[in-house]
Amino acid sequence: MNLEEAMEILDVVQGEDKAKIRKKYRSLMRRYHPDALGSDRPEQIRRVQQMNEAYHLLMKQEVPILRSARKRRKWEWTGTVNADAFCERNVYLHYSMDVEGEPLYYQAARGKYMWDPEEEEFSLFLISLRHAAKELLEQVERRQGTFREEDTLQSDHRFQVQAKLFHLLTRQFIDPLAALRKAAKPKMIDSEGRAVYQFRAWVGAEGSGEAFRATGELKKGAPIYPKAFQGHRILVKNREGKVLGHLSFDEDYLYFCLIPLLKEKCAKVRMHVRDVKENRRGWPHKAKVDVDFYFRLEQEPPKDRTGDLNEEIRELLLAYETKLMQR
Fold first, then answer.
1. Cβ density class 19-53: b for 16+ within 10 Å, e for less
2. What does the longest C-alpha to C-alpha distance in the chain come to?
3. What architecture is the 195-297 domain classified under in CATH?
4. How confident is residue 134, by pLDDT bands cut at 50, 70 and 90?
5. Which residues on neighbouring strands pair with residue 91, listed in sequence order?
6. Phi and psi at residue 138, in whole multiples of 5°?
7. Segment (H or E) for 93
8. Is residue 166 classed as helix, strand or coil in its secondary structure?
9. What is the CATH superfamily name and number for domain 3-59?
């Protein structure tokens, strides 16, 4: 494969930097990867192989390096804004240069921007919300004169409050349906015009308890059913009602897109066993069930509930401040 062919495969034009190349590559992989399509036909596998080859070839080239954070104007960032969100957050992007270890990132913007899968890495979005929750707590601590840069009351209570703030902020800055439509491609549109998505998921169990035994008894093609929501997780069971464990997805963003839509009764799911793997060598024994997770949208979600979330955040921060005053 030559450079011109690689650029055509990834739809790259002359002069684009590594950040844009990486963005286009990931967008195409989300759209055409066999796992996303739920199919492993030879032509689809070959297409992904070509995309991988093109990506690695282009990333070796001398292309313009992304400008530094100091030279990048924050107002250049464009995106959907939730003007009623409780607070602003930082938007982070990775530097385009290749470095060893953890990829470096910089602050590209600050504002009340919704998460956009096509523009912002989900891992960096989560870091952004953790920082936003931390900032809110530090504002309270400064008012009460308890904030110290080297030791910001790292108590169990503070950790719990920050975790609650984090989850409330995810609901303000993620539009589950809009994000899903950008991040994933439907496997099909049914006869009634409803989008049907297919995702790879799995359930794991270990030891010798009931969940391990129930998991090991599953057969390929067997149905699995949701039992309950626990936070951003789905507890699943077999046909006989035996609990198998929590369903896991390969992509973290799916927990924040699929679960809220299911809780709002905007979608239905169907799950079937793809494969069962057991490892009885050593202890504890382990079992993993690969699951085909089908997700069908039924209706649009309710209108924005930012006001309710803002009230929850205020009450949480007020309770935290009251706790500090009692110290």
1. bbbbbbbebbebeebeebebeeeeeeeebbeebee
2. 68
3. 2-Layer Sandwich (3.30)
4. very high
5. 109
6. -65, -35
7. strand 89-94
8. helix
9. DnaJ domain (1.10.287.110)
Q: How confident is the model at residue 8 (pLDDT cuts 50, 70, 90)?
A: confident
Burial (CB count <10 Å: 0-12, 13-18, 19+), residue 69: middle
DSSP tag of 230 = E
pLDDT tens readout for residues 163-187: 999 999 999 999 999 999 999 999 9
Q: What is the pLDDT of residues 73-126, one digit of tens each?
A: 444 677 899 999 999 999 998 775 555 556 678 888 999 999 999 889 999 999
> Does the structure show a pLDDT above 60 at 21?
yes
* Average pLDDT of span 23-45: 72
Asked if 203 and 247 touch (Cβ cutoff 8 Å), the reply is yes
**What is the share, in percent, of the chain residues with pLDDT greater than 70?**
87
Cα separation, 14 vs 35, in Å, equals 31
Q: Which of 162, 120, 178, 130 is nearest to 304 (CA)?
A: 178
Is-contact 58 6, C-beta < 8 A? yes
Per DSSP (E only), the strands in 207-285 are 223-230, 233-237, 243-246, 248-249, 267-279
Beta strands 223-230; 233-237: pairing state: antiparallel
Domain residue extents for the chain: 3-59, 74-175, 195-297
Q: Which residue has the higher pLDDT, 237 or 285?
A: 237
**Tokens at 290, concatenated:** 């690969």
Mind giving me the DSSP string for 100-111? SSSPPEEEEEEE
